[in-house]
Design a protein that fits this description.
Layout (H helix, E strand, L loop, with lengths): L8 E5 L3 H11 L9 E5 L8 H4 L24 H9 L19 H18 L2 E4 L3 E7 L2 E6 L4 E4 L1 E4 L40 E4 L3 H12 L6 E5 L27 H17 L5 H9 L1 H7 L2 H10 L1 H8 L4 H13 L2 E5 L14
Parallel strand pairs: 1-2, 1-7, 2-3, 8-9, 9-10
Antiparallel strand pairs: 4-5, 5-6
Helix pairs in contact: 1-4, 5-11, 6-7
């Protein structure tokens, strides 16, 4: 009598977008991939949301047009089709830009991912283990995973798809950790409820999360002054008014020095301006060719870029939705929002509980 071999086990640690996408594509590729047991460890109730999309804040929107968001590389319109099929933009008057491009709330994208996973979860092709992974150890060619539910799983393959850790409070702010107006993690539900409309607000950091905070406070009717600081005083940029194709060639002649890359980008920016283009298509070209650019650079030059140029890259690469950019621009123009280059040396509390 033939003995059935147990299915190989693939454990995916983290059930946000990345982990959910891995599980989805493995489960949907049975013809090309040998059958396996797929187990996703994710403490949240829903797979696919993760830190980025697990938010009920109405001003938290996807940062790129919906037509560029999809679980399937060969189906770029998948998310847009879901929006129409589920009537997901109903009741969200601010979802569309002036030129008719949808930027839905981030929770809607989480709903889309969950809807694509649903058939595989119901059939058992994907298992959702609602637990945190406490430890992984290797033994005899396999992995033993210890989880917060007290159970262990032995896996043949482990996929690490964890998110960023929760924000760490700067040491200078530790003396005021217990202050009721200190928001240590603005991604938590109702984190901004302690801020009154007229409170003076200091935001430490000028990235995408800072932009989300400004937009959320504006939505709540906050009208007090806001100061947002970072070491360089940079702010996240938005999208072009009109979509443009990537512009520039950064790979046909390999670049081997960080300074050479910066010079090539600056030269290309000047050439783009002469053709009536702005910086967006140039940075889009750098992004599209990024893997080849990176591979041509020696490790010491990669480190130099990461140390010196990354903040400038981040604010141009990770762009805010037009709706959020409009709020920030309006706040800056009115003087209510000041974006400064600064850092915190020390913090103390004084009488009262105002911000």
């Amino acid at each position: 009598m033939r003995t059935l071999e147990p299915l190989p086990v693939v454990a995916i640690i983290g059930g946000g977008f990345s982990g959910a996408a891995v599980a989805l594509h493995l489960a949907g590729s049975r013809e090309q991939v040998p059958e396996a047991r797929l187990v996703v460890f994710e403490p949240r109730a829903k797979l696919g949301a993760g830190l980025a999309y697990d938010t009920a804040e109405p001003t938290n929107r996807i940062n790129v047009p919906a037509g560029r968001m999809s679980l399937y590389p060969d189906e770029p319109e998948s998310f847009v089709a879901y929006l129409e099929r589920a009537d997901a933009l109903a009741g969200d008057a601010g979802a569309m830009t002036a030129d008719g491009v949808p930027y839905p709330r981030r929770s809607v994208f989480a709903d889309y991912v969950a809807s694509e996973l649903a058939p595989y979860l119901s059939s058992g092709a994907i298992e959702h283990r609602r637990a945190e992974v406490l430890g992984i150890r290797r033994s005899a060619g396999r992995w033993t995973i210890s989880a917060s539910d007290g159970q262990e799983l032995v896996a043949d393959i482990v996929v690490i798809a964890v998110s960023h850790p929760a924000p760490a409070l700067p040491k200078a702010l530790l003396p005021v950790l217990s202050h009721p107006k200190l928001v240590a993690d603005p991604t938590k539900p109702d984190a901004l409820e302690a801020i009154a409309p007229a409170d003076r607000v200091l935001i430490v950091g000028n990235g995408l999360t800072s932009a989300d905070v400004v937009a959320a406070l504006d939505h709540r009717g906050h009208h007090g002054p806001i100061v947002s600081i970072s070491r360089r005083g940079l702010r996240s940029r938005g999208h072009p008014a009109v979509a443009q194709e990537p512009y520039g060639d950064f790979v046909s002649k390999p670049i081997t020095r960080a300074s050479e890359l910066v010079c090539r980008i600056r030269h290309t920016l000047r050439a783009a301006r002469q053709q009536g283009l702005d910086w967006h298509p140039v940075l889009d070209a750098v992004r599209a060719q990024g893997q080849q650019i990176w591979q041509a650079l020696p490790v010491v030059e990669r480190r130099r870029i990461a140390r010196l140029a990354r903040p400038y890259w981040d604010v141009h690469r990770f762009r805010v939705a037009p709706q959020v950019e409009t709020v920030i621009d309006r706040a800056v123009e009115s003087g209510r929002l000041k974006i400064l280059a600064a850092s915190i040396a020390a913090a103390t509390t004084e009488g009262g509980d105002r911000g």
